[in-house]
Amino acid sequence: MSFPQRRLRRLRRTEAMRRLVAETRLSVDDLVAPLFVREGIDDPQPIASIPGVVQHTLGSLRDEVRVLRDLGVPGVILFGVPRHKDPEGSGAWDPDGIVQVALRDLRDTFGDEVVLCADLCLDEYTSHGHCGVLDDRGEVDNDATLDLYARVALAQAEAGADIVAPSGMMDGAVAAIRDALDEDAFTSTSIMAYSAKYASALYGPFRDAVDVTIAGGGDRRGYQQDPANARESMEEIRFDVMEGADIVMVKPAMTNLDIVARARAELDLPIAAYHVSGEYAMVRAAAERGWIDGTAVALEQLLSVRRAGADLVLTYFAREIAEVLGGGRSA
Ligand code: PBG
């Protein structure tokens, strides 16, 4: 008797068969590890809501990057926690600011073996916790902020960043940064734009990690995107590409896989997705209770991000996943 359906299960029978027909792969080569470096501490400080991740000293940062390098992780992205904050966030472009010092140190130590990305924003450095400077009414002033982003980009490029990653969701940020870099002969410094970045409750643990509290119980809904909107993300992404972004990012990852897929259908440049602190924390918390297998869930989530169309994934699981997958590109 003939069976009208195709027998799709034939190709799922064995592990080797599944490997042979897998459409998507997650590799160590796809991973970027977010790392925090804090000014003025003698020992690494744990971050309660991002278990397993710490605020690094310069020394422990170097050790961590060495481990990641040895595991084959190609990139890291740095976030700074300064000792002092001010209304303009001047630590972000100070040549002696913590991220600039860290970049120089890592560049000296590792040369070109690891791609050094620097998050480019002011929120870790401003006393009010917003991603830009405030105008008389207390709103984030877009164009005044662009001038400061240009200064941060130059400071980071000068210190050795391969990639600067503007995350503040100011209009025109990519163009302002590209202009500033090119004028100062940093034509080889790349821009990974946080293009479609949503105002998300999933950034909570990150704000613990960088000691950011937004003044007056405020939020970022005036500049980050409304989770209700998807078409708007494509507008954001198209503008960033026109302005000169080399890589565009979607963030958070799991709640915005539709955006990743739409961007993939439209674009041929690399697409990044950021599996953010809250996404990591949820998996870790459930795993700690024994409710899920955390590593298995992490692998499944990150593979799904790849399947949606992202080329690279920023994730706090980078080290753990690299340990599980085993490293390195095999041509
Ligand atoms: C802003 C920035 C944030 C994150 C990355 N860059 C915080 C925010 O927008 O409030 C969040 C990353 C995460 O949650 O893992 N500098």
Order of helices and strands: HEEEHEHEHEHEHHEHEHHEH
Structural class: alpha/beta
User: Which percent range describes the beta-strand content?
Assistant: 15-25%
The separation of the N and C termini measures: 46 Å
Ligand identities: ligand PBG
In this structure, how is the largest beta sheet organized? 8 strands, parallel, barrel
Tell me the number of strands. Answer: 10
Q: State the shape.
A: globular
The quaternary structure here is: single chain
Report Rg. 20 Å
Strand order of the largest sheet: 1-4-5-6-7-8-9-10
Specify the number of helices: 11
Could you tell me the CATH topology label of the domain at 26-248. TIM Barrel
User: What is the H level of CATH, i.e. the homologous superfamily of the domain at 26-248?
Assistant: Aldolase class I
CATH architecture of the domain at 26-248: Alpha-Beta Barrel
**The CATH class of the domain at 26-248:** Alpha Beta
